[in-house]
Amino acid sequence: MAERTSFDIDRFLEASRAVELGDICWEEIPRHRLTPAAVRTLHAFLHTESATYFYLRALMRTRATVDHPEIAPFLCAWSYEEEFHGRAIRRFLEAYGERVDEGYRARMFEKRGPWERIEELGQRAIAALTPAAFPAVHMVWGAVQELTTLSAYRQLLARTDHPVLAVICQRIMKQEARHFAFYFQRARQELAASRFARRVTSAGLRFAWTPVGDGMLDKRDVMHGIRFLFDGMDGDVIPAIEARVRELPGLEWFDLFSRFVARHQLRRAPASWLTKPERSITDQHAGAP
């Protein structure tokens, strides 16, 4: 089926809502056990979902959110839904018996790495110096990160065996897929329309892109999550993410995720980390051993 070339923002806004949790049986959660590695990864999910506010805060300082009529309303709905993704993960962890400190979000922002601060300044500089290209940069960046997040939820679902977590992940994934669709379609439009935007976007990605959570989370938790979810260099999820990104005009070169995992020598997750080591999304589709 051919991909749509436009995004119905009105339909998106009308469908936007908090992820449904009213029918979740919270008392059932501690009866199904997860590995410590899976619990650690869920804490990373909580932090990355809860960091959306800080990204939105930085974006709202740029001109792009004013000049493009679809972007501001999308960001409002996007941040609203992402906030409830974080709340859903937090409620799950607390029901499981994990402690989540009230001040975790503020401390995460205070302790963010220097590269995260540089990225914020760079974003504002690109928006000010090359306003025509900034929407393309932002849409591509969002597309890569949303696709990574969607893939992460798929892998979390495949690598754990928890019926309540599965329901929550499936509901979050439906919204993440809609987020990715907006970013990807707008990125394609912006890049196709401007060679200059393609050049600026490529330069920005090569200079500053890192995986979701890097800069906000402890580096060790980022590395752990990439191994647990994607098997680092040994998996085929990261190549699949890059192949999708390379469909965008001017990004046929994109291999930054593979370079990141190779640079940090991230390998396959031990079987002891996984509840369902024999069932990975990529194993089913790629015939991996």
> What name does CATH use for the topology?
Ribonucleotide Reductase, subunit A
Mean pLDDT: 86
The CATH class designation is: Mainly Alpha
Strand content: under 5%
- Characterize the largest beta sheet: strand count, sense, and whether it forms a barrel: none
Give the number of DSSP strands. 0
N-end to C-end Cα span: 30 Å
Low-pLDDT segments: 1-5, 278-289
CATH architecture: Orthogonal Bundle
The assigned structural class equals mainly alpha
Alpha-carbon Rg, integer: 19 Å
The overall number of domains is: 1
Order of SSEs, N→C? HHHHHHHHHHHHHH
Descriptive overview:
With 289 residues, the chain is an all-alpha fold. The protein has a single domain (32-286), classed as Ribonucleotide Reductase, subunit A. It is built from 14 helices and no strands.
Ordered list of secondary-structure elements with their pairings:
Layout: H1 9-15, H2 36-50, H3 52-59, H4 64-67, H5 71-96, H6 104-110, H7 114-129, H8 134-159, H9 163-193, H10 195-208, H11 219-230, H12 237-245, H13 256-263, H14 281-286
